[in-house]
Automatic annotation (TrEMBL):
UniProt-listed NCBIfam families: 5-oxoprolinase subunit PxpB (TIGR00370)
Nucleotide-binding recorded as keyword: yes
UniProt cross-references to InterPro entries, sorted A to Z: CT_C_D (IPR003833), Cyclophilin-like_dom_sf (IPR029000), PxpB (IPR010016)
Key words, A-Z: ATP-binding, Hydrolase, Nucleotide-binding
Lineage of the organism: Bacteria, Pseudomonadati, Pseudomonadota, Gammaproteobacteria, Pseudomonadales
Pfam families registered for this protein in UniProt: CT_C_D
An MF annotation (GO) of this entry: 5-oxoprolinase (ATP-hydrolyzing) activity
Enzyme class: hydrolase
Annotated gene: pxpB
Documented EC number(s): 3.5.2.9
Name by which UniProt lists this protein: 5-oxoprolinase subunit PxpB
Domain Carboxyltransferase: 3-204
Amino acid sequence: MKPRLEVVAVDCLMVRLFDEIAEANMPWMLAASERLRAVFAEDLIDLVPSYTTLMVHYDLLALTPAQARDLVGEALNNLSPDAQAAGQCHVLPVWYDPRVGPELDLLASRSGLTVAQVIRRHSEREYQVFALGFAPGFAFMGLVDEELAAPRLGTPRKRVAAGSVGIAERQTAAYPVVSPGGWNLIGRTPAKLFDRERDGYSLMQPGDTVRFAPVDHGEFIALGGDDTPLEAQA
């Protein structure tokens, strides 16, 4: 790890810890987040973690840019991941079906796998939540099996149903709310991923892990899932 500091704005610094996305980064990212929150204390306005970076937004009325850089250096000095630190593990039920996952058959055909094999490979892994973004509660997770990796759609959909589970490159995610989107959809979860009444709003946070658990149609409906086909929701 070779940390670099980049200026994003007059009151914002980007701490770049890594150059490549990897699951092994997360313990270091969590440790750096904890240290940065501690050293900046009440002078920290926001801290936004991503795959390889941490954006530090600080109070310019309380700190000069030079003082902010010094605090970042203090936070990263002798940094080491906490072996005991771990996020929450979430198990999300998913109904994998072409009616709600129109790219399920396409991914199977492209990879030379059967639909059942695509479902098994997607659901047998435990995914790391790297970052939140795009929409409230949208968690970018990875890394999916290389054979399931697929580029985003050439033309994004204008409307993707809440709960839709998709793949883009080697990332996977579930749409927390109805929104446009260009990911390859393979199923749908009934889980409530974004809730204004929840502390932090999002079900998942960076550092958490996620497993997708296949369920049949009946169980999906019993859990409160909406099985309206994607085309009917447009």
